[in-house]
């Protein structure tokens, strides 16, 4: 996994790391059991403090996506194949989706354009995820 | 507009106020020119500090959705009828959409279910917005 962050972004670095890992899991690039770089390694690669990487990994652990332990480091614990999400996740996610889509509508994006963006983004994840292991 | 916040939520109060206003604009409940309650009034209604309301209104101002001035207070400056969003908005929004949809896929929500959630949320906004001014 090539993980890059934008040091000039308003989005905190730990959040960017978390977001990139979530996207890599969704796209099938990281499957259950995949190891992530150690916090010190990733911090050195990105030129950031290892506490920042720790914060990102801990957030992913609390979300149920990573398993952290002293022996194996950070390992993906959940992906698209792990069964349906918990009810509390779906409820919270739906509320955040509502706010994000409201933002687009309030800013004047047409509903067709917004829906097309949802569709093409989802297609990219699922095509990539399904493509894993198939002949090239 | 009935604006309610959840004091026990992990989402900061100013963010909740901002989100509810965005949703009210998207649903057509607040159109261009609609006045919002004064910061002191809303703070008193919600039982919170008026600096928190100020922070929410200022965020909405920076997003181009509210106009703030001493004479008229906070007034909606932009809604779905104000033309297409700025390119930098669309770029940033698309990146946030990608992360949010990735979260659903990583947590095991099927792509059809995720797309259906997008579709029904958008339909609710646009039906309400279009319903404004039509005969009951």
CATH topology of the largest domain in chain A: Arc Repressor Mutant, subunit A
> What's the total count of β strands of chain A?
2
Give the C-alpha Rg of chain A: 17 Å
Helix content range of the residues of chain A, please? 55-70%
Number of domains of chain A: 2
Which range does the strand content of chain A fall in? 5-15%
Number of discrete helical segments of chain A: 5
How do the strands of the widest beta sheet of chain A line up side by side?
Answer: 1-2
The pair of chains with the biggest contact is: A-B, 49 and 49 residues
- Report, as a whole number of angstroms, the end-to-end distance of chain A: 19 Å
What is the annotated CATH architecture of the largest domain in chain A?
Orthogonal Bundle
Low-confidence stretches of chain A: none
Secondary-structure map with pairings?
The structure is a homodimer of 136-residue chains.
Chain A: H1 13-26, H2 39-46, H3 50-62, E1 66-69, E2 73-76, H4 87-106, H5 111-131
Helix pairs in contact in A: 1-3, 2-3
Question: Could you characterize the architecture of this molecule?
Answer:
- The structure is a homodimer of 136-residue chains.
- With 136 residues, chain A is mainly alpha-helical.
- The first copy, chain A, folds into 2 domains: 13-76, Arc Repressor Mutant, subunit A (Orthogonal Bundle), CATH 1.10.10; 87-130.
- Chain A is built from 5 helices and 2 strands, in the order αααββαα.
- The first copy, chain A, has a two-stranded antiparallel sheet.
- In chain A, helix 2 (39-46) packs across helix 3 (50-62).
- Chain A is globular and about 50 Å long.
- The model of chain A has no long low-confidence stretch (mean pLDDT 91).
- At the A-B interface, helix 1, helix 4 and helix 5 of A face helix 1, helix 4 and helix 5 of B.
